[in-house]
Amino acid sequence: MTVPAPRKVPMPGPRHFDTHAEVYDRARPPYPAELWTRLRELGVLRPGIRAVDLGAGTGLATEPLVRAGATVTAVEPGATLAHRLRQRLPTVTVHVATAETAPLRPAAFDLAVAATAVHWFDLDTVLPRVHRALVPGGHFAVWRTTFGDPTIPPTPFRRRVAAITARRDPPPPRPAPTESDTAAWARTLTHTGHFHAVHVAEFRWSIDLRSPQIRDLFTTFSDWTPLEVDEAARAVDHLGGTVREHYRTPLIVLQRLPHD
């Protein structure tokens, strides 16, 4: 078997997801039910609140917010993703804009959410904007899915994935904590003095995926080439057709502070 040569890893961008909107819509797994239970237990998610979902995609977080009884505004820069979101959730107000430019009125929301999106934001711009958009004492809930749980011993499939990514040149540095460093993210999100962290948690969960599902899911990853995606999908076939993936969802709940 011919081993592909090392490749340069381009700096990924969020517009990648709009290019693969249909695949993204069907491939991304839902966030764990425990996360939504925790938000309700904390009192930040309850019927009647006004919420804004920043970087909403096709509504992976938006839909549960609506089901919980919130009035939701969604902000999504990708026009194709936003169109799918409007079709799915016609009661949601959708702005085709970035978190840095969306028209957010002062004190318009009780809760802001960034689900697997905050790492794309210019936080020096977004944190003051979210602060202004929230009512006094409002909350900003930030979480993401980490695809691969570093606390679980590598599965045969994860070893195949590691072999694929090891052939890449190192990616350029990004001015943000790594996805596994939840404590560093909490510090990053509070360093401007607009918010303080009131709750930090991590939810670990597993999902069984077949090779077509792996192909779709890895296609949505902004730093994976089609050849790499194909190699990962073929690895699933070689391993019996189904693999169990262990994922992790860190949650940081921030509360708005008084700020001049």
Can you give a write-up of this model?
The chain has helices at residues 15-19, 21-27, 33-41, 62-67, 79-88, 123-133, 156-166, 182-190, 211-219, 226-238, and strands spanning 50-54, 71-75, 93-95, 109-115, 134-143, 195-210, 242-256. With 260 residues, the protein is of the alpha/beta class. The chain has a seven-stranded mixed beta sheet, with helices on both faces. The protein is globular and about 55 Å long. Mean pLDDT is 90; it is low at 1-13.
Describe the structure using short key phrases.
7 strands; disordered N terminus; 7-stranded mixed sheet; 260 residues; 10 helices; alpha/beta
Quick overview:
Residues 1-13 have low confidence and may be disordered.
By secondary-structure content and strand pairing, the structural class works out as: alpha/beta
Query: Which percent range describes the beta-strand content?
Result: 15-25%
- What is the strand tally? 7
Helix and strand sequence: HHHEHEHEEHEHHEHHE
Uncertain stretches = 1-13
Q: So what's the overall shape?
A: globular
The count of helical stretches stands at: 10
Q: What is the helix content?
A: 25-40%
Strand order of the largest sheet: 3-2-1-4-5-7-6
Query: Largest sheet at a glance?
Result: 7 strands, mixed
Q: Give the termini separation.
A: 62 Å
